[in-house]
């Protein structure tokens, strides 16, 4: 299946640009043609957990959301916000 990552990497392979990818994704998709230039300073971005605001979320899903938030907080040092 051809997806957005395939399209981006096809353009990079053809010399039409460059992209920023996670190391894991590059290792999965690299056929040996691509080279990684490491970025010295980490790039930070905000992420979030998305759910439908008008749909019921069961107790298992709520527990999973709490677990994800606790896990993320452990890496960032941020305090957990209630889900």
Can you put this structure into words, describing what you see?
By secondary structure, this protein is mainly alpha-helical. It has two domains: 1-43, no CATH class; 45-83, no CATH class. It contains three helices and no strands. The longest helix is centred in the C-terminal third of the chain and has 18 residues, at 59-76. The model has no long low-confidence stretch (mean pLDDT 83).
**What's the domain count?**
2
Query: What number is the mean pLDDT?
Result: 83
- Main β-sheet description: none
Q: Extract low-pLDDT stretches.
A: none
Beta percentage is: under 5%
Which descriptor suits the 3D outline?
A: elongated
Our measurement of the CA-to-CA distance between the termini, rounded to an integer number of angstroms, reads: 35 Å
Total DSSP helices = 3
Order of helices and strands: HHH
| Count of β-strands | 0
Helix content: 40-55%
Going by helix content, strand content and strand pairing, the class is mainly alpha
Radius of gyration: 18 Å
- The assembly state of the depicted protein chains is single chain
Topology readout:
Layout: H1 4-13, H2 23-29, H3 59-76
List keywords for this structure.
mainly alpha; 2 domains; 83 residues; 0% strand
Would you kindly provide a brief summary of this structure?
The protein is mostly helical and 83 residues long. The protein is 42% helix and 0% strand.
């Amino acid at each position: 299946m051809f997806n957005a990552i395939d399209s981006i990497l096809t353009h990079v392979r053809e010399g039409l640009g460059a992209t920023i990818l996670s190391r894991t994704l590059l290792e999965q998709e690299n056929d040996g043609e691509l080279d990684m230039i490491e970025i010295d300073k980490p790039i930070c971005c905000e992420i979030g957990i998305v759910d439908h605001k008008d749909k019921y979320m069961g107790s298992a899903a709520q527990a999973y959301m709490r677990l994800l938030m606790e896990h993320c907080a452990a890496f960032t040092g941020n305090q957990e916000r209630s889900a």
